[in-house]
Amino acid sequence: FSPQHLDDDTVSGSNWITENNVQHSLSQTAKTTRKPYCGYTEQTLSKREQAEQESLLAAIQWPKPPDSKIPFAQSTDPTHSDFVIVKPSRFFKVGDQLEVLVRMKDFQGKPKQYGGDYLQARIHSPGLKAGAAGRIVDCHNGLYKVFFTLLWPGEVKVSVSLVHPSEAIQVLLRLREERPDRVYFKSSFKSGRYSETTECNVCLPAGLPVCNFTDLYTGEPWFCYKPRKLSCASRINHAKGGYLKGLLTQEESLFFQSDVNIKRPILSSGPDSVIVKPKAFT
After folding, report:
1. What is the pLDDT of residue 282?
2. Based on the domain organization, do 161 and 87 belong to the same domain?
3. Could you tell me the superkingdom of the organism this chain comes from (predicted)?
4. Distance between first and last Cα of the chain
5. What per-residue confidence (pLDDT) applies to 43?
6. Which domain holds residue 233?
7. Which positions of the chain have pLDDT values less than 70?
8. Per-residue model confidence (pLDDT) at position 244
9. C-alpha torsion angle, residues 74, 76, 82, 87 (rounded to 10)
């Protein structure tokens, strides 16, 4: 895969640029391989840092489908899915909890048997310009419970959306592990009238000198290819360079259709709003 949108004067894994903007192939300067430059991975963590790392990894752990290759027809379909308000006719007042049950189905209309979908849920009253997010609980069986705290009186409407199906989440996880360089960045270096721009990322393919900009306080790794004639200390700015394309298979791309299964509303099979009374004071 080759990067897209790199500036002509950007030093990447394939070119180095001279002050006259003449490109020299890498074979003229240094040899490179696909081995990433990730020296920070060799750092030894203290017991406290190890515990913190394990805690963070556990917190972001995402449920996985039972099979890594789920056909598109068996993936989550927001059109077939629905939600219901639990006890919609109940007398609600400000401060009460509202519970909503979301039922996910696939494109064949069959109930999903596992969780992992990325949902967003909110209550809102457009007339009051008021809104609040809900707390979503994944039941790991195709059902999701959403809990809202009713914060204002009047008619309160419930909205639920599918941001990404669980099958798409697994593709994103794979890309995160296999292609951490799919989004790349660049930095400019300048001294007097001479300037160069180089590619930057958490890891870079080995073979060229790099500047280590790892944060000394947090330990967050960051590297840029070293400019040909300038020092690492001459860096003046940082920006997004672009992203790599063509990383999805044809089947995987079906999980990322903006008009089908990305940020699509899930409709209610019953009432989608409740009336909330002001809280009584004694």
Report:
1. 57
2. yes
3. Eukaryota
4. 68
5. 67
6. 183-243
7. 1-43, 281-282
8. 84
9. 100
Taken in order 161, 165, 168, 169, the sign of the CA dihedral is positive
Give the CATH number for residue 258: 2.60.40.10
The CA distances from residue 212 to 44, 90, 92, 135, 271, in Å, are 18, 60, 57, 40, 57
Residue 223's nearest CA partner among 13, 5, 7 is 13
Q: How far is CA 203 from CA 189, 222, 273, in A?
A: 19, 7, 49
Let me know whether 83 and 168 are in one domain.
yes
Q: How far, in Å, CA of 264 to CA of 118, rounded?
A: 11
DSSP string, 60-72: T-----SSS---G
Taking the CA atoms of residue 42, residue 45, residue 50 and residue 53 in that order, the dihedral angle to the nearest 10 degrees is -60
Does the pTM surpass 0.70? The reply is yes
Count Cβ neighbours within 10 Å for each residue of 1-29 and write b for 16 or more, e otherwise: eebeebeebbbbbebbbeeeeeeeeeeee
Flag whether 212 is in a domain: yes
Number of domains, the chain: 2
Predicted pLDDT of residue 80: 98
HSE-CB at 254 with a 13 A cutoff on CA atoms is 13
Tokens of 91: 């007398």
Does a structural domain hold residue 126? yes
